[in-house]
Specification:
The protein is an alpha+beta fold. About 35% of the residues lie in helices and about 35% in strands. The chain has a domain of about 110 residues: Bacterial Protein-export protein SecB. It has a four-stranded antiparallel beta sheet with strand order 1-4-3-2. The protein is globular, with a radius of gyration of 21 Å.
Length: about 160
Protein backbone atom coordinates (compact mmCIF):
# COMPACT_ATOMS: atom_id res chain seq x y z
CA UNK A 1 0.00 0.00 0.00
CA UNK A 2 1.30 3.43 -0.88
CA UNK A 3 0.53 6.61 0.96
CA UNK A 4 0.06 10.04 -0.48
CA UNK A 5 1.45 13.27 0.99
CA UNK A 6 -2.07 14.11 2.19
CA UNK A 7 -2.11 10.88 4.23
CA UNK A 8 1.14 11.88 5.97
CA UNK A 9 -0.08 15.36 6.88
CA UNK A 10 -3.35 13.98 8.26
CA UNK A 11 -1.45 11.46 10.37
CA UNK A 12 0.90 14.17 11.64
CA UNK A 13 -2.02 16.35 12.69
CA UNK A 14 -3.42 13.56 14.88
CA UNK A 15 -0.43 13.74 17.27
CA UNK A 16 0.23 16.42 19.85
CA UNK A 17 0.33 19.99 18.54
CA UNK A 18 1.72 23.14 20.10
CA UNK A 19 1.90 26.59 18.54
CA UNK A 20 2.26 30.09 19.92
CA UNK A 21 -0.50 32.23 18.42
CA UNK A 22 0.06 35.62 20.10
CA UNK A 23 2.08 37.30 22.85
CA UNK A 24 0.71 40.47 24.47
CA UNK A 25 0.79 42.62 27.58
CA UNK A 26 -2.44 42.15 29.50
CA UNK A 27 -1.71 44.65 32.27
CA UNK A 28 1.20 46.92 33.16
CA UNK A 29 1.63 49.17 36.19
CA UNK A 30 4.33 51.27 37.80
CA UNK A 31 4.26 53.32 40.98
CA UNK A 32 7.03 55.39 42.56
CA UNK A 33 5.34 56.66 45.75
CA UNK A 34 8.35 58.58 47.11
CA UNK A 35 9.23 60.49 43.94
CA UNK A 36 11.03 62.85 43.65
CA UNK A 37 12.60 62.53 47.12
CA UNK A 38 13.80 58.99 46.43
CA UNK A 39 16.11 60.25 43.66
CA UNK A 40 18.08 62.37 46.14
CA UNK A 41 18.97 59.44 48.40
CA UNK A 42 21.83 56.97 48.29
CA UNK A 43 20.73 53.98 46.23
CA UNK A 44 20.83 50.77 48.30
CA UNK A 45 17.95 48.72 46.88
CA UNK A 46 16.36 45.55 48.17
CA UNK A 47 14.33 43.67 45.57
CA UNK A 48 11.32 41.44 46.12
CA UNK A 49 9.94 39.45 43.17
CA UNK A 50 6.63 37.57 43.09
CA UNK A 51 5.85 35.24 40.17
CA UNK A 52 2.40 33.85 39.42
CA UNK A 53 0.83 32.09 36.48
CA UNK A 54 -2.72 31.33 35.49
CA UNK A 55 -4.36 29.58 32.59
CA UNK A 56 -7.70 30.00 30.86
CA UNK A 57 -9.11 27.63 28.27
CA UNK A 58 -10.45 29.81 25.45
CA UNK A 59 -12.04 27.04 23.43
CA UNK A 60 -11.34 23.42 22.56
CA UNK A 61 -7.65 23.83 21.67
CA UNK A 62 -6.71 27.44 22.44
CA UNK A 63 -5.43 28.48 25.84
CA UNK A 64 -4.44 31.79 27.38
CA UNK A 65 -1.52 31.64 29.80
CA UNK A 66 -0.78 34.74 31.91
CA UNK A 67 2.56 35.22 33.65
CA UNK A 68 2.52 37.92 36.34
CA UNK A 69 5.77 39.43 37.61
CA UNK A 70 5.45 41.82 40.56
CA UNK A 71 8.55 43.66 41.75
CA UNK A 72 8.82 45.79 44.87
CA UNK A 73 12.07 47.67 45.38
CA UNK A 74 12.80 49.22 48.74
CA UNK A 75 15.65 51.65 49.28
CA UNK A 76 17.66 51.66 52.50
CA UNK A 77 15.67 48.76 53.92
CA UNK A 78 12.08 49.93 54.33
CA UNK A 79 11.25 52.83 52.02
CA UNK A 80 9.43 51.74 48.85
CA UNK A 81 11.23 53.16 45.83
CA UNK A 82 8.91 51.63 43.26
CA UNK A 83 6.43 48.88 42.56
CA UNK A 84 6.21 47.48 39.05
CA UNK A 85 3.98 44.73 37.69
CA UNK A 86 3.46 43.16 34.31
CA UNK A 87 0.93 40.57 33.23
CA UNK A 88 2.45 39.05 30.11
CA UNK A 89 0.04 36.80 28.28
CA UNK A 90 0.08 34.43 25.37
CA UNK A 91 -2.45 32.49 23.36
CA UNK A 92 -1.31 28.96 22.60
CA UNK A 93 -2.73 26.22 20.41
CA UNK A 94 -2.32 23.05 22.47
CA UNK A 95 -3.84 19.84 21.20
CA UNK A 96 -3.48 16.13 21.81
CA UNK A 97 -1.92 16.14 25.29
CA UNK A 98 -3.00 14.05 28.25
CA UNK A 99 -3.95 15.86 31.48
CA UNK A 100 -0.48 15.56 33.08
CA UNK A 101 1.35 16.89 30.01
CA UNK A 102 -1.24 19.65 29.55
CA UNK A 103 -0.73 20.74 33.16
CA UNK A 104 3.05 20.85 32.71
CA UNK A 105 2.75 22.70 29.40
CA UNK A 106 0.55 25.52 30.76
CA UNK A 107 2.26 25.54 34.16
CA UNK A 108 5.93 25.54 33.10
CA UNK A 109 6.57 25.45 29.36
CA UNK A 110 4.32 28.37 28.35
CA UNK A 111 5.53 30.64 31.21
CA UNK A 112 9.12 29.90 30.10
CA UNK A 113 8.23 31.26 26.67
CA UNK A 114 6.53 34.36 28.15
CA UNK A 115 9.25 35.21 30.69
CA UNK A 116 11.70 37.00 28.35
CA UNK A 117 8.88 39.26 27.13
CA UNK A 118 7.79 40.03 30.71
CA UNK A 119 11.38 40.66 31.83
CA UNK A 120 11.89 43.12 28.95
CA UNK A 121 8.61 44.91 29.68
CA UNK A 122 9.55 45.30 33.38
CA UNK A 123 13.05 46.53 32.56
CA UNK A 124 11.66 49.08 30.11
CA UNK A 125 9.08 50.26 32.64
CA UNK A 126 11.66 50.70 35.41
CA UNK A 127 14.11 52.62 33.22
CA UNK A 128 11.30 54.92 32.09
CA UNK A 129 10.84 55.72 35.77
CA UNK A 130 14.56 56.69 35.67
CA UNK A 131 15.60 53.94 38.05
CA UNK A 132 18.56 51.66 37.29
CA UNK A 133 17.82 48.82 34.89
CA UNK A 134 16.20 45.79 36.49
CA UNK A 135 17.64 42.76 34.73
CA UNK A 136 15.92 39.76 36.30
CA UNK A 137 17.82 36.47 36.29
CA UNK A 138 16.36 33.58 34.30
CA UNK A 139 13.73 31.52 36.11
CA UNK A 140 13.49 27.71 36.08
CA UNK A 141 9.74 27.25 35.62
CA UNK A 142 10.11 23.45 35.59
CA UNK A 143 11.52 23.60 39.14
CA UNK A 144 8.78 26.01 40.26
CA UNK A 145 6.14 23.73 38.73
CA UNK A 146 7.61 20.69 40.52
CA UNK A 147 7.63 22.60 43.84
CA UNK A 148 4.00 23.56 43.36
CA UNK A 149 3.01 19.95 42.61
CA UNK A 150 4.84 18.81 45.74
CA UNK A 151 3.13 21.50 47.83
CA UNK A 152 -0.28 20.42 46.51
CA UNK A 153 0.46 16.75 47.26
CA UNK A 154 1.50 17.63 50.82
CA UNK A 155 -1.69 19.64 51.32
CA UNK A 156 -3.79 16.73 50.05
CA UNK A 157 -1.90 14.26 52.29
CA UNK A 158 -2.20 16.40 55.42
CA UNK A 159 -4.83 15.10 57.86
CA UNK A 160 -7.78 17.35 58.51
CA UNK A 161 -8.88 18.13 62.04
CA UNK A 162 -12.58 18.07 62.77
Amino acid sequence: MTTTPADHSAAAQEGPQFALQRVYVRDLSFEAPKSPEIFRQDWKPGISLDINTRHNALDSHFHEVVLTLSVTVKNNGDEVAFIAEVQQAGIFLIKGLDAQNMSHTVGAFCPSILFPYAREALDNLVTRGTFPALMLAPVNFDALYAQELERQQQENAAPTLN
